[in-house]
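Thread: "does anyone have the structure for this chain?"

Original post by V.I.:
We have the sequence but no experimental structure in hand. Need at least a predicted one for the grant figures.
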Amino acid sequence: MKEKVKLLAKLFFTMMKIGLFTFGGGYAMLALLENEFVSKKGWIEKDEFADMVAIAESTPGPIAINASTYIGYKVAGFFGSLCATIAVCIPSFIIIYIISIFFDAFLSLTYVAYAFKGIQVCVVYMILSAGIKMLKNLKKKPLDIILLVVTVVVMVAFSVFAVNFSAVFYILIGGAVGLFVYFIGVIRSKNREKKQ
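Reply from O.Q.:
Generated one for you, tokens below.
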């Protein structure tokens, strides 16, 4: 029981730290989550982290909260997921609440405007860093490479030609293609078994 409480406390304070120092939303948080829970603590394997990102992205709600809930559940069950979810939300809630009270005065400060410009650069780096790490861990199967290349080409083309296409559709189409290929493989293996 004592070990479980220590684990929950460690999880809580780690998630609080990540929630406090992450600017730029859930995608920026992914790099911190991977560094903390895969590299430093070793509580989650790299492959499982990549699967968790896919699940967190495709389920309703913010990716950061979904990922935190998953990690908390993996580490300490139901109470771990509850603890991690609350801990990652508390810093943002408090900061946004304080800012909302003094919003107009806060935005008029020159130092705040410059700080936000600096933070924007860091956010781009953190999102890019998380993407590159996930790309390195991607299994180099033909289907994965084809889906990645097609998605990147379509995203760039749609951006250049100002076509409005939601990121949700990329996920749904990728999932549908994956299921289609899986079922084709199942049918082929059943046909081979019948021939033998």
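V.I.: this helps a lot. The chain has eight helices and no strands.
O.Q.: and The two ends are 55 Å apart (CA to CA).
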